[in-house]
Amino acid sequence: MSTSRPLDRRTWLKLGGLSLGALVSGTGPNLAQLFATESAAGSDFSVILFWANGGPSHLDTFDLKPDAPAEVRGPFKPIKTNTVGVHITEHLPRIAKLADKFALVRSLHHNRGEHSGGSHRFLTGYPSVAANLNDAEYPDVGSVVSKELDGRGGEVPTYVSNTKSYGSGPGHLGPGFAPFMPHANPVTSTGANAYDPVPLHLTKEGHAGLSLDPDGTVTLRRRDDLRRSLDALPRWLDDRSGPTAEFGRHQRRAVELLAGPRTRAAFDLGREDARTVARYGDSDWGRDLLTARRLVEAGARFVQCQANIRLRSDTGRITTWDDHSVNCDIFRAYEERMPVLDRAVSALIEDLSDRGLDRHVLFVFCGEFGRTPRIAYQDASRRPGRDHWPRAMSVLLAGGGLRMGQVVGATNGRGEEPTHRAMDSNCLLATIYQRFGIDPNRAHRDRAGRPIAILPECEPIAELIGTRPARGVG
Question: Is the model's pTM score more than 0.90?
Fold first, then answer.
């Protein structure tokens, strides 16, 4: 048989879903992704998605409404940025000084108000049948990128994530196009909202699971688990003339990628200049975003990381951005999150610009939806919170060779819905796919063999790609 033919879905089913996680870290179906791409060709565009799972409030970050009633606007004040007419929250002063290097889209919306249903809708472009689903029914944007770049990767994984998001995944593309997750936690793909944040950067615990030593060897954390997984495969695995011969080659390729110098170097923050590390800040978010920059610089094409943080116990019980009154005091939570976000994100934006990476690396900060334009007090403590709101949201983007220094779209005076340039959230995916050179009309086959377009019909955001002047700044 040809050694260049990739394993198909049926073969993977026969292999029982054995994954990189089983082979390397004991988590998630990730094996095929590490060897799914072979040589970078064409566009060198990459994305870093900092995913505020739970849904960040547009009204308290990038679309403040100071003239709205108190029950709508909240306590935070808008401040000027270095771009005339653009204002953001007072709690992001470093980011405010970089408005010429980022763009805000304030008018995206969709129709799903559940966490996993909203994440699925936002990240795949398709509404799911199930409302609260752990795994995606359609492939998310990172998996689509992995599939479309199949056979054109380099020496590092094409799609990397710290862990799996609720309602995301490769869908009908199969586990071969799931991300490489160095230390994933399966709880992150459930309705839980108070799990320990999962770092993208390798912590001491992460190194215990996957040791990338100077000699380029890979230490398998669960050797017994690996042996049992391999022993459990059907006897036909011993057929060296069949599909399993290909499996063995790909298995070796997976380990070679992890052991390779570029992957090891990307995860090794000890190789980074100490002044750069300090700029990002002494936080998980700082180290995660610096690791993400190192990964795309090394050749990764889509890096996704959840923006979770442990709040003080008197502020709330969650680690996500699900800021209902029953979960936390939303405004105290933002006062804790914002300084960390401000330092880490501003450092990344400056770093991408200083290195010239802003021409082909796009940073995106968003979640599955916005929050309600009315403050609620459901908790017995009467602390403030906001609920789910997919009818309006704000997204921050930086770099990617797109037009920065602008605001696209606007919402009404209460932040309830777009009043200018209302766009389905698929427009953001269409913009990303265009920059990757991916035709969103291209069809992939689902599990029943039916052709499914990558994205339902939607246009890229013209203001970002330079074909339409921006309006609606504020």
Answer: no
